[in-house]
Amino acid sequence: MDHKVITHWKGNSQFESDNPSGKTLLIDTSEEDGGHNSGLRPKAMMLSALAGCSGLDVVSILKKMKVKITDFRMDTYGELTEEHPKTYHTVSVEYHFYGTDLSEDKIKKAVDLSIEKYCGVMEMFKKFAKVNTSIHYHNN
């Protein structure tokens, strides 16, 4: 499957970009860098794509395993190089699961399957950055 995304300049540093789903988003930069701070930043969107890709895998796998959670979030951090072009050299993804009597073994298996087998964005990140992951269980 191929994807096509059209990104259209809206003036100053603002762009509108579509998605194969038909949804759009705004891309912009900070005011100090000439933008209006009205949209998402490109490099940070990469971190969102990483978390979204892995998160979709994890919830799908947990559903198939019939694992109950009350909440789930991922905190994703990227460390940039000092020199231009600034790229992520290290990325950390923290998986936070909330619930009562969490099935830690099954949750770990779901996360590992995403990291090692299913998440294509994770695989792309591994080609240019060191990727660290951790799982945090918050039992109610």
TrEMBL record:
Compositionally biased spans, kind Polar residues: 11-22
Database matches in Pfam families: OsmC
Gene3D superfamilies: 3.30.300.20
Positions of the UniProt region annotated as Disordered: 11-39
Domain of life: Bacteria
SUPFAM superfamilies, A to Z: OsmC-like (SSF82784)
UniProt xrefs under InterPro entries: KH_dom-like_a/b, OsmC/Ohr_fam, OsmC/Ohrsf
PANTHER family: PROTEIN YHFA
Protein name: Putative redox protein
Naturally occurring in which organism (per UniProt): Gelidibacter sediminis
